[in-house]
Amino acid sequence: xxxxxxxxKLKTSVTLEIxxxxxxxxxxxxxxxxxxxxxxxxxQNLWTEKNETEISQQKELKQLDExxxxxxxxxxxxxxxxxxxxxxxKQLENQIKQKNEEIVAKKLAIMxxxxxxxxxxxxxxxxxxxxxxxxxxxxxxxxxxxxQTLSKMEKVC
Length: 157
Description:
Layout: H1 2-85, H2 89-156
């Protein structure tokens, strides 16, 4: 009789211990899932920000191209105006030279803007890659901990 009671208590104790450990594993797994969801949300936000940055850069480049085209058209219009007024060739050359210098300055500004935007884009991509690597490493570590816990549970059972 005493042996039966002891066996029953031992089974109850082992069952409670298994239930507790299962609850801990479930809680840990839920926590890992939540962290994974949070990481996915952060990744999605970073990805959206990257895409918005690219779109913004494309719009800026398009605007700069439009400005360049406007300047070219202005040069053509000014040249026609000068021809119509019969200005001397020296005056015309000076104005063309000045407009060409303006075009060169605008081209340099566009190239500098593009270079700066490319650097920003590269930095953003580097940050995104680093973040992804950190998330992967974190998940690997958590999976290792979970695997260790599972192996301990299997040894106990």
